[in-house]
Amino acid sequence: MKNKNLETILRKVGKGSLSVKTALELLGGMHFEDLGFAKVDHGRERRKGFPEVIFCQGKTPEQIKKIARSIIAHGSRLLGTRLSEQAWKAISADLPEATYGPVSRTMTYTPKGPRKKPAGSIAIVCAGTSDIPIAEEAAVTAEMLGSNVTRVYDAGVAGIHRLFAHKTTLDNARVVVVVAGMEGALASVVGGLVRVPVIAVPTSVGYGASFGGVAALLAMLNSCASGVTVVNIDNGFGAGYAASLINTSR
């Protein structure tokens, strides 16, 4: 918890405007704000190291805006995923401090003030240009969590020399995230080249027999390369989050 937030809590307890019980919940990371349609978990940053992330898909623009406002008002960083351009246009005027990434479909905000320097190194490798939106979701997520990210895009197995041209980047990474659709072979190739954890992300990119990413998912789950872990189809957020936890752990 930030010192400013801690001081605010203690002052409210001293003035009698905040009960000791509520203060303990806040300090223990168990506090949430009930908006009626959502319970914003303000204690998550204390428990997990990063605030609650808004999964925007399926939420109305008004709901997204109110949750985002709650998080920003609490003095926390903001990350929203799967935010459509249409929804962003509907809320952007009310969230002028936030930034939208049309490729990653993410909304971000970082409070002003001192900030830790990005740590370690994560390489985000994607097979084809069509996989970039998922790769960008992973990259933005990892950057918001405080990691250095290097992007290697359009380096699939159909032209494997494109991947080898970035061997130094792979060798210097603490974690590699591999994003691929079609047959998902890139994860096994990268897994056989590096000595660090590889997080594979199957995408729904591909023709009919790819079954919306199931073919890539099964290929990655059955990888013969050691150290390859797989997240769900199109789950760039999950990969970026896990990669950053590995990258910044001591």
From TrEMBL:
It comes from Candidatus Raymondbacteria bacterium RIFOXYD12_FULL_49_13. NCBIfam families: LarB (NF033503). This is 1-(5-phosphoribosyl)-5-amino-4-imidazole-carboxylate carboxylase. Pfam families: AIRC. It comes from the Bacteria. Residues 120-250 form the PurE domain. GO terms for biological process: 'de novo' IMP biosynthetic process. InterPro entries: P2CMN_synthase_LarB (IPR039476), PurE_dom (IPR000031). Transmembrane segments: none annotated. GO terms for molecular function: hydrolase activity.
